[in-house]
C-alpha cells in the first residue's frame, strides 16, 4: 500500500511541477522548443526566423493551456492521493 501511494504521489507531483513550469515560464519552454528544433528539425529557427516569429504567440498560448491542464490534473491526482492515504 505504501509503495502505491508513493508511486502515485510522485507521479502527481511530477505532473503538477511540469504544469506549473509551463504555466509560469512559457517563454522558457519556447526557448527549449526552438533549441530542440535547431538540433533535430530540417528547418530550424535560424533558417526560417519569420515562421518562428509569426507562431510565437500561438506557441505561448499552447504552452499556457497545456500548463493549466497539467496543473489541474496533477493537483487533482495529488488531492485524491492524499485523500486515499488519510481517509480510506
Write out key terms for the chains shown.
mainly alpha, 88 residues
User: How is the main sheet built?
Assistant: none
According to DSSP, the number of beta strands is 0
CA gyration radius, whole angstroms: 18 Å
What distance lies between the first and last C-alpha atoms, to the nearest angstrom? 11 Å
- Structural class, from secondary structure content? mainly alpha
The proportion of residues forming helix, as a percent range, comes to: over 70%
Sheet-strand content, in percent, reads under 5%
SSE run: HHHH
Shape: elongated
- What's the overall average pLDDT, rounded? 93
Question: How would you describe this structure to a colleague?
Answer:
By secondary structure, the chain is mostly helical. 85% of the residues lie in helices and 0% in strands. It has helices at 2-24, 26-40, 49-54, 56-86. The mean pLDDT is 93.
